[in-house]
Design a protein that fits this description.
- This protein has about 400 residues and is mostly helical.
- It has 18 helices and no strands.
- The protein has one domain.
- About 75% of the residues lie in helices and about 0% in strands.
- Helix 9 runs antiparallel to helix 17 and helix 11 packs antiparallel against helix 12.
């Protein structure tokens, strides 16, 4: 066997691992950040060992989504130099953004239809498991799996729970319209998922994203007159949820109360703390608007500001845009916005339903980043990298796959 044939055989064996790894990553996303991180790292190893990394220069030239994601990661690496954080802290922080590299590493494998199918099926299986576990916890079973004592009935935090559930409902709605003869499984996902995030796991981020994705779905799939009627019906459904769900109405009432307290100067509430984080993070950014204070600098800069203002200390402003801006200035913020903008622009080239789903992914992440540091966070960051790689994998070849 010649060296070239041995290399080809080695690459073929490694490629065979892509489908089961995609299934494992998809399944882990809603259930285990450790599992998702492990499978993503395994993909990175496959990318390196298979030699697909050597195709990266061409991939960057051909695929603007990869190019901008890696530019943002490169900026975070460069801004380790001159950061107000020590080198160790800066490196620990930048490695949390490795999900931007995973986009490039995953794409060559997720361009394969089998790997796509395994990944999608794994994700839906993971979401079904999450629904079952949430139901069991709400009935008092499997208490050892609850995320925290006395927390919502979920094995994970209610923030990623709601975000992933809202996106799953959006995807299921597209599946329902595309497969009307087999509508009942997807109708069940929509009904159970909606009940779950409005009656059981009351994460406001997920509820806001649910409304945004529902409106986007109506605009994507219906003529504007029918979309307006659909929007009216959505409002009626949400009003029903408000009156029927003490969890949903309670979270809204809590939010209104928090805002009122913040306006009187009391920031010791959930929303009050976030508003304080946002205001102070904006102040830090404007102190170094062009290039920021450097990667990993937020915790130290915020601690110094908190000492002067008696604000609560924090290592996270719960807003990805402000976190990026504080570290890398307007340059980094522009790159993050450009990443979302390029994804929206090129979603038109993907064919359907990938184009619609890619638009839903951008809306999900863009809204989530307003309320959380979602690219930094493990669950949401891996979710974004996985589906960005899947939806845009064929962009440089102009042969988008269908689900």
């Amino acid at each position: 066997m010649t060296p070239a044939s041995r290399a080809k055989a080695w690459s073929t064996r490694l490629n065979r691992l892509a489908a089961p790894c995609a299934a494992g990553l998809g399944f882990s996303l809603p259930l285990s950040t450790t599992g998702a991180s492990a499978f993503a790292l395994l993909f990175l190893v496959l990318w390196l060992l298979s030699g697909k990394v050597l195709d990266l220069p061409r991939q960057i030239r051909a695929n603007p989504v990869v190019a901008i994601a890696l530019l943002l990661l490169a900026l975070l690496l460069v801004r380790m130099v001159g950061s107000t954080a020590p080198p160790g802290e800066a490196f620990d922080f930048v490695q949390k953004y490795r999900k931007l590299l995973f986009i490039a590493a995953l794409m060559p494998f997720l361009a394969d239809h089998k790997a796509q199918r395994y990944g999608i099926n794994g994700f839906f299986a993971g979401m079904a498991t999450l629904l079952l576990l949430s139901g069991a916890l709400s009935l008092g079973f499997l208490e050892s799996l609850r995320f925290r004592p006395m927390s919502d009935p979920s094995p994970i935090s209610r923030i990623p729970h709601g975000i992933l559930m809202a996106f799953t409902i959006f995807w299921a709605a597209h599946r329902l319209l595309d497969n009307p003869t087999r509508a009942w499984p997807w109708a069940g996902v929509i009904a159970l998922g909606s009940f779950n995030i409005f009656f059981m796991v009351a994460g406001r981020t997920g509820q806001v994203i649910f409304v945004g994705l529902a409106l986007l779905f109506l605009l994507q799939r219906l003529p504007w007159k029918k979309a307006m009627i659909g929007g009216l019906l959505l409002g009626i459904v949400l009003a029903g949820f408000f009156f029927l769900s003490s969890s949903f109405s309670g979270r809204i009432a809590e939010g209104v109360h928090d805002i009122e307290k913040y306006q009187t100067g009391d920031a010791n509430t959930s929303i009050g703390q976030r508003r304080q984080f946002w205001d102070n993070a904006t102040h830090l950014w404007l102190a170094a608007p062009l290039i920021g204070h450097g990667t990993g600098s937020f915790a130290r800069e915020y601690a110094a500001l908190a000492q002067k203002t008696s604000a609560l200390p924090s290592d996270n402003p719960h807003n990805e845009y402000l976190l990026i801006a504080e570290q890398t200035g307007v340059i980094g913020l522009t790159l993050l916005l450009a990443l979302f903008g390029v994804m929206l622009w090129y979603s038109r080239k993907l064919g359907q339903p990938y184009g619609w789903l890619a638009q839903g992914l951008v809306l999900t992440m863009a809204v989530s980043c307003l309320l959380n540091s979602s690219l930094l966070d493990m669950a949401e960051g891996h979710f974004f990298a996985f589906f960005t790689a899947m939806f845009f994998a064929g962009l440089d070849r102009h042969t988008p796959a269908r689900i």
